[in-house]
Amino acid sequence: MAEEFEPKIVAFLCKWCSSAGSDLAGVSRMEYPPNVIPITVMCSGSVSPLYIFSAFNKGADGVLVSGCHPGDCHYIKGNFYARRRIALVKKLLEYVGLEPERFQMSWISAAEGVKYTQVIKDFVQELKPLGPQKKLRRTQ
Amino acid sequence: MVNLEELKKEARQILKEGKVKYIIGFQRSSNGLLPVPAFIKNPEDVEKLVWDPTCVYNLTLFLRDEKRKKAKEKEPDERPVGIVVKGCDSRAINVLLQEEFIKREDVYVLGISCENTGVLDEKKLAKKLKGKKAKKVEFGAKDDFVVTTEDGKIKIAAQEVLAERCLECKAHFPVVYDVLIGEKTKRNVENPFKSLEKIESLPPKERWKFWKEQIDKCIRCYACRSVCPMCYCDECVADTINFVVTPDTPAEEKAQKIKWLEKSPVSSENFVYHFVRAIHLAGRCIDCGECERVCPLDIPVRFLNKKLEKEAKELFDYEAGFDPDKPSLVSSFKDDDPEDFIR
Ligand code: SF4
Ligand code: SF4
Ligand code: SF4
Ligand code: FES
Asked: Which terminus of chain A has fewer Cβ atoms in its 10 Å neighbourhood, N or C?
């Protein structure tokens, strides 16, 4: 039997909440799939759409942007700006025909190690049937 | 109906009074149907100004050049530049004001209303004329265009040869101006995003096929970028491609000059370019249609911008170019912005 496809997920996690949440999952030894390439950013609001396009371009099968819950952003409003921008990016990617499952956003607090593992588990499950992302991947 | 003489009179006046340093308008070209931009300094030259359905360009593009030129001058002439704008172009002025790229006193706006028609789609006209060459196109009396060919004059209903964007235009008169020529007529546009439906209603696979085919054609000539009045960034991510790293390149420079995409016009890189272009124009594109008109490969780039224009309206009730005092689409938010897509 062919080896099962293991999707690669690039996750942009804000330092103050989501990244801390993923650390908590780690230090609590919670189990979650090892498919994530985490990139810590200062705030979800600092994630330029270009990072997302670039991740897909460099071969990500899925991209996650995760920040603090509304009202909890370390920079007060960063995640509200992110929410707007990400909504537009999501619409654009879907419009050209990228599978909507491939690009996700979540709110994960520093205390939500469990939620983090769940988001990743779900993401991996949704990506598996889609197979590798070849549409936007650089081929040369 | 718009009276060209009125425009000329106004233009002559402000030049005579020295109110403006020059006027950017349209003049006939010695060759071809479309006009060329006119930069008029002398009141006598005002006679050259034209206004007809071939005045498709968005002249606000030249405000970018003007700003760059002025920045280099030691003792710049601080008077405003006079500029002829249509409704869509005037909204570009509003966006430039909103972004503080220009100041209101930098421009003297000669606004012209498109009233019940708009501007021409040259390709539609060519099809309609079946090989005959149009020499001149004028506004007719009844929402029609009068086209002069070697066989004489014919009337064509404007609807048949209007640019796509004009068919969907709900702001067909200038929203910012110092002088308004023509009338603020009423117009009913039922669905300003109608042209998008064809693509939106395709199943995702077909949509991908459609866009891939289109984006793959792109040769990255950047004409769409050069012609856009909103593409005024001094540095564009699309140009961070020739960056050479040597042993003494400072870390700082390397960090700032990431090679985001390759110059080669292949699918993956073209998509990055077009995504960036579309996103950076979200809430800024005023649908002057110039990007699509100049594309040598007929790539429907307008449909990318238009899609985000639609989403901005539907998700955030935001429309570009109507209010220069409002914060921009992506520098603002509402507490109840949609978040049903967030986990
Ligand atoms: S888009 Fe509207 S304002 Fe612009 S040329 Fe067409 S009708 Fe006139
Ligand atoms: S004008 Fe057309 S071919 Fe040139 S870069 Fe733009 S989309 Fe590509
Ligand atoms: S993106 Fe195209 S339609 Fe929009 S403002 Fe720029 S040139 Fe005009
Ligand atoms: S710091 Fe977490 S979203 Fe802003």
From this structure: N
